[in-house]
Structures are given as structure tokens and as C-alpha cells.
Amino acid sequence: MSPRAVIVGPPGSGKTTIGRLLAKTLGVGFRDSDDDIVARAGRSIADIFAEDGEPAFRALEEETVATALAEHDGVLSLGGGAPLAKGTRARLAGHTVVFLNVGLAAGVQRTGLSSARPLLAGVNPRATFKKLLDERLPVYREVATVEVVTDERTPAEIVADLAARLAPAEAKE
Ligand SMILES: Nc1ncnc2c1ncn2[C@@H]1O[C@H](COP(=O)(O)OP(=O)(O)OP(=O)(O)O)[C@@H](O)[C@H]1O
Ligand SMILES: O=C(O)C1=C[C@@H](O)[C@@H](O)[C@H](O)C1
Ligand SMILES: [Mg+2]
Predict the structure, then answer these.
(1) Which positions bind Mg(2+) (predicted)?
(2) Distance (Å, rounded) from C-alpha 107 to C-alpha 32?
(3) What is the separation of C-alpha 101 from the centre of its chain, rounded to a whole number of angstroms?
(4) Which protein residue's CA is at the shortest distance from atom 4 of ligand 1?
């Protein structure tokens, strides 16, 4: 069993929004590794970061993503930092992985000042977001088989584009 598509990208790129809509369009189930972590830990992500620290969160995330990759055959959205784990990058090999790209301005605007995103909750979210994008772009590109620009495009437009690009080759002939 293998997910039809795995979605990666920075916070605010639309992994949850696009993933859910893509799953509906393809008529398959949707799963989000952030939701799996919250269900498994019985605590919010902000609480796990605050109480256990980021390394403990990342270890739990790697395990949770490995389970979801093995169990789920629909659309699977990963947490924004999930591909930072070397083991997760190795597990993603051979999967259809969609990188939702978002620029600095749109990313900052979409994530706002939400305390639900502990990595962006500091005093200068714009600078933090820029650093995160600079560090992670190569990581997202390493695992992705499809890259989609999301700036100035609606979720419906992005999903229509993606659904066409993910269609099996024979369906396009
Ligand atoms: N293409 C888009 N255009 C405009 N707004 C969008 C778009 N995609 C998502 N959004 C909005 O941006 C916000 C963040 O989207 P979403 O939660 O799907 O991102 P995410 O990648 O799952 O973030 P996180 O990594 O924090 O889970 C939401 O308010 C959503 O409605
Ligand atoms: O980009 C990140 O590192 C994160 C993104 C979210 O999806 C959560 O997984 C968590 O807030 C960390
Ligand atoms: Mg999300």
C-alpha cells in the first residue's frame, strides 16, 4: 500500500487545505501527519514543543510519518519540517511527492502570528520564515517528484493542475 500522493512544503503552503481538496477530487481518503501526532500524543503540537522540546517532537514525527506511509493509500500531508529527518527522506524515495512552494510574502501572510505554529511564534516571523525557506527549499526539492507554485493561485486552481499532473500516463493519451 502506498499513498496516492504525499504533500510537503513550508508552513502556510497549503498542505492541509490542498491535500484535503485533492483527496476529495481524487475520491480517496485524506490524512495529515500533524493530526496523527496530536491524536497519538493527546496534546497539541505547541504543547509538545513547549513541554518536550523540538528533538522529541521530531522523533515522534518521524515514527508517525513512517506509520502513515505504510498504512495510507490516499493523500498524505506531512508536517512542514517532516522531510528534515534523514530517515523520512529515505522512506519518501519511490513515492509521488508534491512540493507546494510558497514565497516569503504569501507564506508570512498565510501563517500570520498564530501561536499554533511554534517555530514562527517569535518576535520576527518574517525573518524566521525567510531563514526556514532558505534552509528547507533544497530539502523539499530533494524529496519532491512534482513542484507546484501556490502564490496568487486559489486552492481550486492548484488542485485542478495537480490532479491533471498526477493522472496516470494512460489516462492522458
Ligand atoms: N492557495 C492559497 N491561497 C490563499 N490562501 C491559502 C492557499 N492555500 C492555503 N491558504 C490559507 O493559508 C492558511 C494556511 O494553510 P494550511 O493550513 O493548509 O497550510 P499548511 O501548509 O497545512 O500549514 P502547516 O504547515 O502549519 O500545517 C489557511 O488559512 C488557508 O486557508
Ligand atoms: O515547519 C515545521 O517545522 C512545522 C510545521 C507544522 O506542520 C508542525 O508539524 C510543526 O508546527 C512544525
Ligand atoms: Mg497543515
Answers:
(1) 16
(2) 19
(3) 10
(4) 154
Task: Give the tens place of pLDDT for each residue, 15-36.
Answer: 999 999 999 999 999 999 999 9
For residue 14, the CA-to-ligand 3 centroid distance in Å is 7
| φ, ψ dihedrals at 114, nearest 5° | -60, 130
40 is in an annotated binding site: no
pLDDT recorded at residue 167: 73
Identify the pLDDT of residue 125: 77
* Residue with grid cell 492522458, as numbered in its chain: 172
Q: Is the CB of 83 under 6 A from ligand 2?
A: no
Distance 16 CA to ligand 1 centre (A): 7
Q: What's the gap in Å between 105 CA and the centre of ligand 3?
A: 18
Tell me 103's DSSP state.
-
What is the Cα–Cα distance from 79 to 10, expressed in whole angstroms?
8
With a cut of 50, list the residues of the chain below it in pLDDT.
172
To test the ligand 2 pocket, which listed residue (119, 131, 140) has its Cβ within 8 A of the most ligand atoms?
Answer: 119
Residues paired with residue 147 on neighbouring β-strands, in sequence order: 99
ipTM over 0.95: yes
Residues 6 or more apart whose CB falls under 8 angstroms from that of 133 comprise 10, 104, 107
Alpha carbons 162 and 14: distance in angstroms, whole number = 13
